[in-house]
Amino acid sequence: MAVSGSGGSRADNGYSSQQPRRRKGPSALATAYLVIYNVVMTAGWLVIAVGLVRAYLAKGSYHSLYYSIEKPLKFFQTGALLEEYLLITKYLSGIVPSSVVLTAFQVMSRVFLTWAVTHSVKEVQTEDSVLLFVVAWTITEIIRYSFYTFSLLNHLPYLIKWARYTLFIVLYPMGVSGELLTIYAALPFVRQSGLYSISLPNKYNFSFDYYTFLILVMISYIPIFPQLYFHMLHQRRKVLSHTDEHKKSE
C-alpha cells in the first residue's frame, strides 16, 4: 500500500494528447464508453463537493462534515477501481504509456483509506484530518475527470489543463497530510480493539498485526510521495511548456 496523494497526483493515465509520439487511439465505441465513465465520475465528485458545501452552510462549522458525504464518497472512490482496470487494459494494448504500478498504488491506497481506515475505525470519522483529504480528493477528481472528458472529446480548455497540472502543488501535500494524520489517529483504536489482527495460535499458524501494518503504510509514504510529486512536476513542465510553445507558434 502506498501514498495516494491529491491534486492530479496519479500518474498521467494517457487521456491527454500531449505525448511525444503518435499512438493508436481507442475506437469510437471505447471513446464513447470512456467519455460516459468520466462524465459520471465528474458528476459524482461534484455531488460530493455540493454535499460538503451544503452541510457546512447548514451547520455553520467544518467539523464532522464527513457524514454528509460518506455514501457518495465510498461509492465514487471505489469506482476508481474500474478506472484502474481500464488503465491496465489500455496499457497492455499499447494505447497508454503510463506506469500501471504507480497508478495502482494511488488508486488502491485511496480505496484502502476509505474502507480499511475511515470506514472501519469509526472514531476517526470526526477528525478534521478526514475533511482535509476529502476536500483535496474532491477538488482533484473534479478537475481530473473533467480533464479526461474534454481530452477524449479533443476540446480541452486551457484553464482545465492548467488546473490539472498546477493545483496539485498544493492539493497533493494537503491530501497526503490528511491521510497520514487520519491513519495516525486510528492507531490507538486499532491497537485497543485488535481490528483485523490475527494472533497465534490458530489452525493456519499465521499471525497478522494490523497496527504494525498501518505503521508500515505510513512509512511507505516516505519513498513514494517524492517520486509521485516530482513525476507530476515533470509532467507539468512538459505539458504546459508544450502549450506555451504552441501558442507562440500560432
UniProtKB/TrEMBL annotation:
Catalytic reaction(s) noted: a very-long-chain (3R)-3-hydroxyacyl-CoA = a very-long-chain (2E)-enoyl-CoA + H2O; (3R)-hydroxyhexadecanoyl-CoA = (2E)-hexadecenoyl-CoA + H2O
Pathway participation: Lipid metabolism; fatty acid biosynthesis
Compartments it resides in: Endoplasmic reticulum membrane; Membrane
GO BP, sorted A to Z: fatty acid elongation; sphingolipid biosynthetic process; very long-chain fatty acid biosynthetic process
Main location: endoplasmic reticulum
Domain of life: Eukaryota
Bilayer topology annotation: Multi-pass membrane protein
TM region(s), chain numbering: 32-57, 95-118, 130-153, 165-190, 210-230
Pfam families, sorted: PTPLA (PF04387)
Gene Ontology molecular functions: very-long-chain (3R)-3-hydroxyacyl-CoA dehydratase activity
EC number in record: 4.2.1.134
Family matches, as InterPro entries: Tyr_Pase-like_PTPLA
Keyword set, alphabetical order: Endoplasmic reticulum, Fatty acid biosynthesis, Fatty acid metabolism, Lipid biosynthesis, Lipid metabolism, Lyase, Membrane, Transmembrane, Transmembrane helix
Record carries keyword Lyase: yes
GO cellular component, one term: endoplasmic reticulum membrane
Positions of the UniProt region annotated as Disordered: 1-23
Transmembrane helix in keyword set: yes
PANTHER family membership: VERY-LONG-CHAIN (3R)-3-HYDROXYACYL-COA DEHYDRATASE (PTHR11035), VERY-LONG-CHAIN (3R)-3-HYDROXYACYL-COA DEHYDRATASE 2 (PTHR11035:SF17)
Family, similarity comment: Belongs to the very long-chain fatty acids dehydratase HACD family.
Role noted for this protein: Catalyzes the third of the four reactions of the long-chain fatty acids elongation cycle. This endoplasmic reticulum-bound enzymatic process, allows the addition of two carbons to the chain of long- and very long-chain fatty acids/VLCFAs per cycle. This enzyme catalyzes the dehydration of the 3-hydroxyacyl-CoA intermediate into trans-2,3-enoyl-CoA, within each cycle of fatty acid elongation. Thereby, it participates to the production of VLCFAs of different chain lengths that are involved in multiple biological processes as precursors of membrane lipids and lipid mediators.
Protein name: Very-long-chain (3R)-3-hydroxyacyl-CoA dehydratase
Organism name: Turnix velox
